[in-house]
Amino acid sequence: MTIPSKTDLELASTAVKKLMAAGADAADAIAAAGTSLGVSFRMGKLEDVERSEGTDLGIRAMVKGDDGAMRQAVVSLTDTSGPALDEAVERVIAMARIAPDDPYCGLADKSRLATDIADLDLDDGQEPDADTLASRAEAAEKAALDVEGVTNSMGAGAGWSRSQVALVTSDGFEGTYSGSSHSISCSVLAGEGTGMERDYDYTSSRHLSELDAPETVGKSAADKAVKRLNPRKMKSQAVPVIYDPRVSGGLVGHLAGAVSGSSVARGTSFLKDRMGEQVMASGLAIVDDPRIVRGRSSKPFDGEGVAAEKLALVDDGVLQSWIMDSSSARQLGLETSGRAARGTGGPPGPSTTNLYMEAGKLSVEELMADITEGFYITELIGMGVNGITGDYSRGAAGYWIENGELTFPVTEITVAGNLKDMFMAMTPASDLVFRYGTNAPTMRVEGMTIAGA
């Protein structure tokens, strides 16, 4: 079900007409409306209820200078009344006229604009009240606190939101879509004193019918926390490392950062010269698909109105495409890959949608079966990744693997390597599940260095 936002579409259309009448050579406007409601519980008591509503409008004007070079400026406003919009239009035109030349700015090629806005079933039309959300949060926390070994709670929450996007360009594109989101989360502590351990779990979905039960979320968070009690520290060594699905998506995200059109155009990516080459192990595939029905990051068109299509970034380990909006594509002498993301405060930029690594053929048990000693990661800390060199170093916690089995929890570990080597040494399991915007199955990476005690 898609709930149209006709008022927002009319607002964006009015803004574009005003921009063109005021002297813009090209223009677009994006109206983003959102409503959210969240409730949190801690130790059996309601902690807070928060609700927000609002509409932001972003207007972009592109003006040719006397030398024929295009310049652009963006203004964002929340007061969208007539006088406020007129003032914003006047301001953005004046800003564009004195902005530096930008040879790559401009609207998307008209031939690439979406003409059929697909219904991806992103909005279930439901709007729960605060009492309903409170009961979900309370049930999640109660289920967690009932687990033996859990001694304290950092809280449980339940939320709902709806966002609506309307985009209009001076080249004739008009499109709008909306999406809902439901969520439940829980975080608890197990153990006593200095031996306490924390863990969490959560669920989120576009449709309420696909949301995990509150009790499932709470018990899972509690079981994870209890399982982490009495962790050990390990000596430094090189071992196979297994990434749990809740962290393995980060590896796919690092690949996406390295193939972002803006990074490649600036020369700040360790993969900038690798198009058409083997960058991952044979058999691996990375896909970005904005058209997944009810997908967490699905959209029927991108931030420039370009039709959303499935895109293979890596196929059989070979790099196939950059992630590009129109501007970065022009810098690279290519065409946009339909991956423009757009907020109201700035021009479009390249970004992924539903990004994932395709599942492998081995079960998780088979993936670990031959590991005499290894490290299974469930949590990563810090952002120690160098996008220029590919050097990778992050804090981690998880479980030690002995003879193919998870044994005891470990903590205060640093895992290190280089992404160029890691990508070539990856083996995915068969357990791919779409839970986030970026997803990957359980992942094995050979020969990583761990630094411990």
TrEMBL record:
PANTHER family per UniProt: METALLOPROTEASE PMBA
GO biological process: proteolysis
All residue ranges annotated as the Metalloprotease TldD/E N-terminal domain in the record: 27-96
InterPro entries assigned to the protein according to its UniProt record, in alphabetical order: Metalloprtase-TldD/E_C, Metalloprtase-TldD/E_cen_dom, Metalloprtase-TldD/E_N, PmbA, TldD/PmbA_N, TldD/PmbA_sf
Source organism superkingdom: Bacteria
Domain annotation Metalloprotease TldD/E C-terminal: ranges: 237-452
Gene3D superfamilies: PmbA/TldD superfamily (3.30.2290.10)
Family membership: Belongs to the peptidase U62 family.
Organism expressing this protein natively: Candidatus Phaeomarinibacter ectocarpi
SUPFAM superfamilies, alphabetized: Putative modulator of DNA gyrase, PmbA/TldD
Record's GO cellular component terms: cytosol
Domain Metalloprotease TldD/E central: from-to ranges: 126-229
Molecular functions (GO terms): metallopeptidase activity
Protein's name according to its UniProt entry: TldE protein, part of TldE/TldD proteolytic complex
